[in-house]
Amino acid sequence: MNPPYTPPPAGPAWFLQRKNWLLFMIRELTSAVIALYLVFFLVFLARFGGGAWVFEEFLALLTHPLSMAGHALAFAAAVWHSVSWFNTSAQVMPIRIGTWRMPGVATIIITGYAPWLIISALVFWAALP
Amino acid sequence: MSRSNEAFWWSLFAAGGVLGALFIPVLVLLTGFWLPTADPVEAAEHYTHLVELLGRWPVKILLIAVIGLSCFMCAHRIRHTLMDLGLRGHARAISLACYGAAILGALASVLLVARI
Amino acid sequence: MAGEKRITLEIFRYNPEDGGEPFFQSYEVEYLNHWVVLDAINWIKDEIDGTIAHRWTCRMGVCGSCGMMVNGEPKLSCHSLLRDYAPGPVRVEPLQHFPVEKDLMIDKSGFMERLAEVKPYIIRDDVNDTGNGEYLQTPAQIAAYHEHSMCINCMLCYAGCPVMSLEPAFLGPAALALGQRYNLDSRDKGQAERVDAMSGDEGLWGCTFVGECSVVCPKHVDPAGAIQKGKIAAAKQWYANFIKPKGAKK
Ligand code: FES
């Protein structure tokens, strides 16, 4: 008698097998784009620290379509990260009062989307003269 | 990685994940679109305003936390993704490279923000 | 038999006794509107081909023994209406990430060992001391773990979890959720005894929160949520040990 049949191991493209695995992989890969943006942001801070003249020169560079395209990609990745992060909050940190459990959608809005919106508005308000 | 180390790195990942989710989209809009498209007069105003804003310690600390911890969020995810893509044999080297880069990034954010 | 509509099932076949490779065998079935995939397989086994091996017991989503891949999705075959797969064909395979004993029957011994590893029972020193009555719980204390206690051990979550193939030693969703279920139980004092099994690289930290286990779970156990709660608890414990390392590190 032969041993039990063992299916062949998944190759490096395993995440293409199921839709939610693919969405997971996209979520993880947003971190690579965000990492590139963080490197850019450090450069941004360095230029900013270099004085008004250096900074304005740097800002002029950023009007280049390549910079715009890069930032558009970074924005998409960052938003994907935010949305996928907040959407799990009801699973990870459910809000409970006694036996009552807040519905998932409400938890996600209260702990995720609402603070996100308020903080984004505050940062804009604080950063712009 | 022993289990206690993983708990530590994961806690940095989780903190960075939260801060990154809350702050990075708006930072991208600011650095990528809002500031560069200002006209020269506005740009000069922006600069003086931002210098004043980033001169405050609470703002400095918040910015360092956002950038530094986001570095660890990215490092943690990139590390796991590389291993999931078939590089489990190099787990140690990948951990060193990812978290090493994150530590450098976090240190850089401290230095760069502090000197403003 | 008085079927209303026809559909083809493509069933995964593997026989360890003939030494052959697995293959798919097609069977055409006339089915009634209320038939589920399991009804069709049982009909095929009774009427066409008695050599098919598959597991089932309750036909009502309670025993957890009829899990299969139906068109690539981990499903309880007793809860999958055939009419939802019309016009077919329906591809039926054994659960992914398990060795196959024969046809649709997987080897679940690895799963059973994993369940035992997390010590899924209430641990406390005075467990034999029932003289003072039961260990009471408030409804709120029950609510803290209740959803994680609904597991029927159907193993669909193992089929949905990609870590099971990437890291074959991974404890997996159901076992970790079960361990966490006891950790969250106010009557239990056994967290420290579960730490070794649960908090290793093959335990909680093996999970990358794909979340598919909670999507495919037919009982809303939410193993992914249980595991993330476990990670938070383990991280808090790590900091507590770091501040006060009294007997903490083994
Ligand atoms: S036969 Fe019992 S769960 Fe399907």
Biggest interface, CB < 8 A: A-B, 53 and 53 residues
Helix-strand topology string of chain C: EEHEEEEEHHHHHHHH
- Topology, number of strands of chain C: 7
User: Going across the major beta sheet of chain A, what is the strand order?
Assistant: 1-2
The CATH class of the largest domain in chain C, by name, is: Mainly Alpha
Query: What structural class do you assign from the helix and strand content of chain C?
Result: alpha+beta
The class by helix and strand makeup of chain A works out as mainly alpha
How would you characterize the largest beta sheet of chain A? 2 strands, antiparallel
Question: Which segments of chain A are poorly predicted (pLDDT under 50) over 5 or more consecutive residues?
Answer: none
- Quote the CATH topology of the largest domain in chain C: Fumarate Reductase Iron-sulfur Protein, Chain B, domain 2
> Strand order of the main beta sheet of chain C, please?
2-1-5-3-4
**Rounded radius of gyration of chain C (Å):** 21 Å
What is the domain total for the residues of chain A?
A: 2
Specify the biggest β-sheet of chain C: 5 strands, mixed
What CATH calls the topology of the largest domain in chain A is 3 helical TM bundles of succinate and fumarate reductases
Level-1 CATH class name of the largest domain in chain A: Mainly Alpha
Quote the distance from N terminus to C terminus of chain A.
79 Å
Oligomer status: heterotrimer
Q: What is the H/E string of chain A?
A: HHHHEEH
